[in-house]
From TrEMBL:
<keyword id="KW-0812">Transmembrane</keyword>
<dbReference type="InterPro" id="IPR010559">
    <property type="entry name" value="Sig_transdc_His_kin_internal"/>
</dbReference>
<feature type="domain" description="Signal transduction histidine kinase internal region">
    <location>
        <begin position="145"/>
        <end position="220"/>
    </location>
</feature>
<dbReference type="InterPro" id="IPR050640">
    <property type="entry name" value="Bact_2-comp_sensor_kinase"/>
</dbReference>
<feature type="transmembrane region" description="Helical">
    <location>
        <begin position="12"/>
        <end position="33"/>
    </location>
</feature>
<feature type="transmembrane region" description="Helical">
    <location>
        <begin position="112"/>
        <end position="129"/>
    </location>
</feature>
<dbReference type="Pfam" id="PF06580">
    <property type="entry name" value="His_kinase"/>
</dbReference>
<keyword id="KW-1133">Transmembrane helix</keyword>
<dbReference type="GO" id="GO:0016301">
    <property type="term" value="F:kinase activity"/>
</dbReference>
<keyword id="KW-0808">Transferase</keyword>
<keyword id="KW-0472">Membrane</keyword>
<feature type="transmembrane region" description="Helical">
    <location>
        <begin position="72"/>
        <end position="91"/>
    </location>
</feature>
<feature type="transmembrane region" description="Helical">
    <location>
        <begin position="45"/>
        <end position="66"/>
    </location>
</feature>
<protein>
    <submittedName>
        <fullName>Histidine kinase</fullName>
    </submittedName>
</protein>
<keyword id="KW-0418">Kinase</keyword>
Length: 335
């Protein structure tokens, strides 16, 4: 469809130009014949075929084979030589004006140069925009492929963690297994059907987080104390799926284990005037506070890549890491 539109546009430009050319070359120029001429008599049908042949020889052959292949010197030499030759041929052999070569050039050269220069510019501009469009499409495809790859790294990770959790609870004979399977089903539905979307509704993503945290609350009873604070002025926004859940998962995976007390996981999510602010803090063991594990670093780099691809110059992400707590901060402009 795009190629057809470009072809129609180019055809329209050419038709309008030749109408303009005929008016300027044959109707606006003074009549030197000495007698009144009809409209058809004013059109030089000896000149037009030569001009058209020269113009489209340049447009269809010289520009694609020489100019676009950056053989500028050869192209320039040939086009100048052909224009001068065509002008001399027209003056001395077609209309036989018996004028000097200098007089011929001053009177007739512009009639050959005008269409060659104008339509060459149109050809060059058209080729430039087509190349730009191809580059944009290539870049878009590259970004989409990279995003799919990054999300494919996330989805199995979330799925296997949840399945392992259900299995562990079933082995223990927990009464919560049925509820956990139902929650897992909802989580999987979101992961399978919504993660392929570029953007999903904020409400849907928050519901997924709520369901995930409820799942984790059942799984980590007696281990974690989970606090999830939400302050959202409007759900009328869209967000890339599975951005926040990676940070929440890491909080559970790397939270400290205390025999005599619960380990805190604090999550704050706010949206105000289209600006999302997210903070996820969990307690860590002193000896593992630096968290230099390869998997953890890959997860952070994965998230940063997705943010740079989806929200370039519209996000801020940083972490605070000390001996007792690890905190991830994320801010996204959803507007």
């Amino acid at each position: 469809m795009m190629m057809k539109n470009n072809s129609y546009l180019k055809l329209t430009i050419h038709i309008l130009f030749w109408l303009f050319y005929v008016v300027v070359a044959f109707f606006l120029m003074p009549n030197f014949s000495g007698h009144e001429m009809t409209l058809l008599e004013r059109i030089d049908f000896k000149l037009l075929p030569l001009v058209l042949t020269l113009t489209y020889f340049n447009d269809l052959y010289l520009l694609p084979t020489l100019f676009q292949k950056k053989q500028y010197a050869l192209y320039g030499f040939l086009i100048v030589a052909i224009v001068l030759l065509a002008t001399a041929l027209y003056c001395n052999h077609i209309i036989d004006c018996s004028c000097s070569f200098g007089m011929c050039l001053s009177q007739q050269l512009w009639k050959f140069l005008l269409p060659v220069i104008f339509l060459s510019l149109i050809h060059i501009l058209s080729s430039f925009f087509e190349k730009q469009k191809e580059l944009e499409n290539t870049q878009k495809e590259r970004v989409e492929m990279e995003l799919k790859f990054l999300k494919s790294q996330i989805n199995p990770h979330v799925l296997f963690n949840n399945l392992n959790t259900v299995y562990a609870q079933a082995v223990k004979g927990s009464d919560n297994v049925a509820d956990m399977i139902l929650m897992l089903s909802e989580n999987l539905k979101y992961i399978l059907y919504q993660s392929e979307e570029k953007l999903v509704s904020l409400q849907m993503d928050v519901d997924f987080i709520d369901n995930y945290l409820e799942f984790q609350t059942l799984r980590t009873q007696g281990i974690n104390r989970i606090v999830f604070n939400k302050t959202i002025d409007s759900y009328n926004h869209k967000i890339a799926p599975l951005l926040l859940i990676g940070l929440i998962e890491n909080a559970f995976k790397h939270s400290s284990f205390k025999e005599d007390a619960l380990s805190d996981i604090l999550i704050d999510l706010s949206v105000k005037n289209g600006i999302l602010k997210f903070k996820c803090m969990n307690e860590v063991d002193a000896e593992s506070g630096k968290r230099e594990t390869e998997g953890f670093q890959i997860g952070l780099k994965n998230l940063e890549k997705r943010l740079n691809l989806i929200y370039p110059k519209k996000h801020r992400f940083f972490v605070e890491n000390n001996e007792k707590t690890f905190t991830a901060h994320l801010e996204i402009d959803l507007k």
